[in-house]
Amino acid sequence: MHTSLKEQGASRLAERRKDARYTLILRVGLLEQGGKSSLCLVKNISSTGVKVKIYTQPVRNSDVCLRVADEAPVHGHLVWVEGDVAGINFHEELDAATLLRVQQKLRPNRRRAMPRVAVEAVATLRTGGQTFRATICDISSLGARVRTRSGLVAGDRVMAALQDLPPIKAYVRWSDGEDSGLVFETAIPMQIIAGWIDGRVRLGV
C-alpha cells in the first residue's frame, strides 16, 4: 500500500517535533576537549544534539564533553564547525529538559549557573588600603575564585588587576581560609574573557 502525501507530511512533522530544538538565551556552557576547557554559548538543543557558539577553534570530528550550569556533563561528538558555530551529536539521547533548567541564584553550597574555567594566572588585589598578590584558581565573565596568603573579608570591595585585562571592580562574596570568591561589578564580555582564558587554561583539570 502506497503512503499518501498527507500521511508522509504528518510523518515528517512528527519527526521534526520529536527532535524539536529549544532556543536558549545566553546560556553559557563549558566545552571540554582533549583535556582543555573553553567557554561556549549554547544556542539550541534537542534530545540528540546541540548547537553552540564557540570562541576558540575546536578539533572537528572528535569527542567532546559539554557542561551547562550544575547539570551532569553530556558527552558527544563534534561533527561540524561553521565560523564561530559548532554542532555536537550526543552519544546517548537525553531529556532536553535537563539542560534547560536555569539555576536561579547562588546557593550556600556555591552552585552557580555561570561555569568557571580552571586557569593558571596571577592578579594583584587592592582592598582597604592593602595590596595582595593572588592566584586565580578559576574564572568566568561574572567572577573568580582566588587564593591569597592573607584571607579576604566577605563583603569587602576589591580592585583586581589581571594581565591583559583592564582593572576589574569586584566584591568578596565569600571567604574560606586562603580561598575567596569574587563577584565582578560588571561582567566581562564573553569574547574577551574567552580569549583571555584560552591561553591560561589548566590542562587535565
Features:
mainly beta; Thrombin, subunit H; 205 residues; 2 domains; elongated; 47% strand
What do you see in this structure?
- With 205 residues, the chain is mainly beta.
- It has 2 domains: 5-100, predicted glycosyltransferase like domains (Thrombin, subunit H, Beta Barrel), CATH 2.40.10; 117-198, predicted glycosyltransferase like domains (Thrombin, subunit H), CATH 2.40.10.
- The chain has helices at 5-18, 97-100, 190-198, and strands at residues 22-33, 36-45, 49-54, 62-68, 74-82, 85-90, 117-127, 130-139, 143-147, 157-162, 168-176, 179-184.
- It has a 6-stranded antiparallel beta barrel with strand order 1-2-3-6-5-4. The protein has a 6-stranded antiparallel beta barrel with strand order 7-8-9-12-11-10.
- A hairpin with a 2-residue loop joins strand 1 and strand 2.
What's the number of extended β-strand segments? 12
- Which superfamily, in CATH terms, is the homologous superfamily of the largest domain? predicted glycosyltransferase like domains
Rg over CA atoms: 21 Å
Order of helices and strands: HEEEEEEHEEEEEEH
Can you list the strand order of the major beta sheet?
A: 1-2-3-6-5-4
| Mean pLDDT level | 79
> CA-to-CA gap between the ends?
58 Å
Structural class of the secondary structure composition? mainly beta
Q: What spatial form do the alpha-carbon principal axes imply?
A: elongated
Overall domain count: 2
Q: Predict the CATH topology of the largest domain.
A: Thrombin, subunit H
